[in-house]
Amino acid sequence: SYVLTQPPSVSVAPGQTARITCGGNNIGSKSVHWYQQKPGQAPVLVVYDDSDRPSGIPERFSGSNSGNTATLTISRVEAGDEADYYCQVWDSSSDPLYVFGTGTKVTVL
Amino acid sequence: EVQLVQSGAEVKKPGESLKISCKGSGYSFTSYWIGWVRQMPGKGLEWMGIIYPGDSDTRYSPSFQGQVTISADKSISTAYLQWSSLKASDTAMYYCARVRIVVVVAATYYFDYWGQGTLVTVSS
Predict the structure, then answer these.
(1) How confident is the model at residue A91 (pLDDT cuts 50, 70, 90)?
(2) How far off is chain B from A96, nearest CA to CA, in Å?
């Protein structure tokens, strides 16, 4: 099965930039999606298809994907961005079809 | 407005059966796959399976095949996740989520709307 690896934690000061990586074998050939999950809440889609944002998601959230690493970038970090973040891919040749990353806890200092 | 509303928290004993639900509204329920995702206490997200309510086509993750049953009743726009014999290790939050398909160069699938979650606690 396909494996997505994320750093367990990322710490960032308010106003700075947070970068969350998602590593997978040749992940650049797949579309990557990102979810934000705040404590006690359901996940929320923040980036889909590598770099597109759903309506209502601030432009501060952006994504990129190349080679073996996809990255979610949060610019001008705010206290409200503190959450767990998960990457996800769909792979028709994989079983399971849907794979989530291990998750990254973003702490705003 | 798209909404997925899940049934309430459950407390069960090992060996008991359980069926939890996810009711969709604000969109054509039969035209989108619905997925189920498990989150064990303090852990990450795990995909369990999906169902297409239009024809009840169902796919399972190998980790959950044979452990749960996913079904849907399109007449009431509701998907279900059920267990025939719960174990303590089934204690978790369970989310349903709508699957969105995007086709650019190739198709990709992601979860665009999520239910609020159903907490299942299995304890003797």
Answers:
(1) confident
(2) 5
CA distances from A104 to A38, B46, B96 (A): 12, 15, 22
Chain B positions touching chain A (beta carbons under 8 Å): 35, 37, 44-47, 50, 59, 61-63, 95, 97, 100, 102, 104, 106-112, 114-117
Please name the residues in contact with B61: beta carbons below 8 A apart, sequence gap of 6 or more: A95, A96, A97, A98, B46, B47, B48, B49
Task: Quickly state the pLDDT bin for A95 (edges 50, 70, 90).
Answer: confident
C-alpha–C-alpha distance, residues A103 and A84, integer Å: 6
Q: How far is CA B91 from CA A27, A40, B32, in A?
A: 32, 16, 28
Residue with tokens 């606690």: B121
Determine, for residues B110 and A90 on separate chains, whether the beta-carbon distance falls below 8 Å: yes
Q: What tens digit of pLDDT does each residue of B46-70 get?
A: 999 999 999 999 999 999 999 999 9
> B111 phi and psi, to 5 degrees?
-105, 110
Asked if B17 contacts B81 with a C-beta cutoff of 8 angstroms, the reply is no
Give the residue-averaged pLDDT of A66-93: 96
- What is the per-residue DSSP string for A38-80? -TTS--EEEEBTTTB--TTS-TTEEEEEETTEEEEEE-S--GG
pLDDT band of residue A93 (cuts 50, 70, 90) is confident
